[in-house]
Amino acid sequence: MTPTAVIELGRQAIEVTLLVSAPLFLAALVTGLIISIFQAATQINEMTLSFVPKIVVMFVTLVLAGPWMITMLTDFMRRLFESIPTMIG
């Protein structure tokens, strides 16, 4: 296994990780931004006001994007396991 192959494998792993985590991060970011604007407009500084909606939105996002996330991860693992014989020899 060459250093180039190791770097390529690491790059692919990071790419899959970023793609799989992006929907949850974006949902939390947008929800946090909307709640922050709402809190600034109403001057309500309650911590649970930002925490509970984020949890709900992330759960809904996980339910909606979950099948796609699982497909991405299983495809990557399948490709990784299928390439083991070429990496060894």
Automatic annotation (TrEMBL):
Q: Which residues form a coiled coil?
A: none
Q: Where in the cell is it found?
A: Cell membrane; Bacterial flagellum basal body
CC per GO annotation? bacterial-type flagellum basal body; plasma membrane
Q: What does this protein do?
A: Role in flagellar biosynthesis.
The regions listed as transmembrane in this protein's record are 16-39, 51-70
The organism encoding this protein is: Azoarcus sp. (strain BH72)
**Gene giving rise to this polypeptide:** fliQ
Give a GO biological-process term.
protein secretion
Primary location class: membrane
- Where is the organism placed in the taxonomic lineage, from the top? Bacteria, Pseudomonadati, Pseudomonadota, Betaproteobacteria, Rhodocyclales
InterPro entries of this UniProt entry? Bac_export_3 (IPR002191), FliQ (IPR006305)
One Pfam family of this protein, by short name? Bac_export_3
Please give the name of this protein: Flagellar biosynthetic protein FliQ
Q: Which family does it belong to?
A: Belongs to the FliQ/MopD/SpaQ family.
What is this entry's stated membrane topology? Multi-pass membrane protein
